[in-house]
Structures
1.
Amino acid sequence: MDIRKLACVIPWAIFAAAWLPGVHAAPALEQARSPSQAQVQAPATELTREQVAQTLTAAVTQIAAQYVDPVDTRALSVRGLRGLAALSTPAFPDGAPGLTRAIQAEEAAADIPAQTEILTEAVMRFPLAGGRAAALDALLRAMMAGLGPYSRLAVPAELVPPPASVGLELSMTQGQLTVVRPLPGGPGERAGIKPGDVIESIDGRASKDLPLPEAVSALRGEVGTSPTLFIKRAGVATPLIVRPVRGPVQPPPSLVWDLNGATAVIRIGAFDRSTAESLRAALKGAAMRADAPLAGVVLDLRGNAGGLLDVAEDVGGMLLKRGVRIATLRGRNEANARKLIARQPNITAGLPMVVLVDGQTGAGAEIVTAALQDHGRALVIGRPTAGAGTIQTVLPLPEGRGALIVTSARVYRANGARLEGTGVTPDLLLDPATRQLTVRPDIAPDFNTAVQKQVAEAVTTAPPGTDPTLSAALAAITAAAPR
């Protein structure tokens, strides 16, 4: 039974933990173009002119070819030069005027070779002993900063992370690196770190506005080593200094499930290589464990910031009729401009389905949610999603200097609407704090008032400490059961 047809006539805390590769922590999707380990070994010697030129040429060329919108490489290069102004090490004999002349020359440069030659010369003005590497890093970061919130420079440690972590689940909240929770029994918990703690610096490096994946990477290291963390805790006047001892931490599964009566409740925290098969196994296991035939499925995508694009496509395909469109990617080359189609057998056998979302549901989770909503396959309950409807591609840099994470496509729903910036508005909007339930305005006139009343009653009568959004979902499944 289709809950949306019953309910109405008209029809991706960002999860990140110190064990996850950084490219999975951003609220966006990664296309699988991972560099080999040899490509991401951090270089041990000072940069030569040839290495700088090679890196900059690769960066500008790949951005120009892969970024979702046409790129003015001259403006891109000027942005990079402006990023050098923040470095404390003087590189131009006459200071700011020298940098201004370099920018003026860049503004007149005719093509990529001429532009990267000016960039290379600027980097080579910086002294040895790490100055050139810092300048190259600052220049690349400045370039990427102008390409939207999800395009960025990834450091080598993000791509092949060290083996140990501090065992923290993190989010970036209003520019502050915030602990969602320490993993039970992990190094962070043993060191006394608590949910809500704000990590202000890691080994002396300020974390404010640092990309979450890079902060995650900074917390990783070798077994037995200890990062120095300055932590701000609510109600404590002075910062705390904490030194957790890094150790091996087993990451939690991307999918967990349980039974509530005859309803399968499946939570997907991220889309990784195991997710699709885990979903298949979860539904099979729930059907075997239930005392009666399954009454429905609750798919909990709250806090799911995305993951791998092909996995999101597989998961969506397993929940829809084979052959229907899940979404459309629009980019500037063939690899980034294609349709996502349901190619898997539908494993839900027409069971009523509810999807739970919130403001941290992004990217891949939004793709799946939007497809189920557009095809009338599920009732969506919760809060509006993040609107992170873009695809990122990992573009390795030469000489093991990390990679560029570049937004290479935008996602459009099956109904043709753009996901970026708008996200998915649930059919039933529910504020867990106030327990206020409202029907999405465009479907409100035709919404099944009996179902709305049943769901609203379940929300308002849910005991303190329970999950009102889950209570709403279970009530909707009950309302969909055959009489």
2.
Amino acid sequence: MKAVVVVGFLASICAGGAANAAPEWTGKWAFDLAWCSNTAETTDAVPIFLTDTELAGYENTCDIINHEPLVVDGGYLLNLSCSAEGETFDENMLVLVEGGNTLFLYREGPSMTKFKRCE
């Protein structure tokens, strides 16, 4: 009986840790890996940055209001509140991570962009 309680306790700790882990789509991503070291001071060909609360690009930032995992492995629906070039707008975005190093962003429109993870 004690073994069952200990196993249940350890399982709840592991599950709690996984729930607090950063989503797999977080990180620094670029359309072309050569862009990974670029900065906005020198070019507009720069990477994007995703955290669990923000998407930051060349001339835009978005607060991630909510993110929900989808049934598709590596897929998430992001609800965003964005600011770009003096405009503010809300947007939904579908993100799909493939193999841990490829990110597909599907925006309303429809529009899809493929990114690679910067090391």
